[in-house]
Amino acid sequence: MMNLPPDAAPEGSERLAASSCPDTTVQQISVLRQRSEFLKAARAPRQAMTGMVVQARKRGAGEPAETPIRVGYTCSKKVGNAVMRNRAKRRLREVARTVLPQLGQPGYDYVLIGRNGATTDRSFADLTNDLRTALRKLHP
Q: Which CB contacts under 8 angstroms, 24+ apart, belong to 7-11?
């Protein structure tokens, strides 16, 4: 470990500091965690794509509006063992992180469901295109 003066930053940290600054134009995304939130989204319209299934539900007037977009991720045991399910969810999280701030609608809850074989084996570009296409179909 290097000893640096308190005001000195390590090499390359300028790039990290600049890229980690929050952008005010990017929408905040929070994660669905409660079963009741997933069940509400299960009754919403869904769009099946090759790499995933996307459910989109507009939140009601009495529901929390602290964040414009909320997203949840799920993979059943059909996807595979725990390693495969976790890999699929990690890929879905990254796809959502890149696509939802641009194409997600404020006030919506989204649930991304992994599919057997396709979510873990499909290329990242194809997964991204799947989510973009699904959002365009869900929000005409």
A: none
Domain count of the fold of the chain: 1
Q: Give pairs for 81-84: CB < 8 Å, separation 24+.
A: 84/120
Q: Are 88 and 52 in contact (CB under 8 A)?
A: no
The CA–CA distances, whole Å, from 115 to 26, 74, 102 equal 28, 10, 24
38 token code pair: 């997933």
- Closest among 48, 59, 53, 44 to 92, alpha carbons compared: 53
Residue 7 confidence (pLDDT): 52
Per DSSP, the three-state class of 60 is coil
Q: What is the DSSP string of 103-116?
A: HPPTTEEEEEEE-T
Q: Residues 72-92: pLDDT tens digits?
A: 999 999 999 999 999 999 999
pLDDT at 67: 75
Enclosing domain of residue 128: 27-138
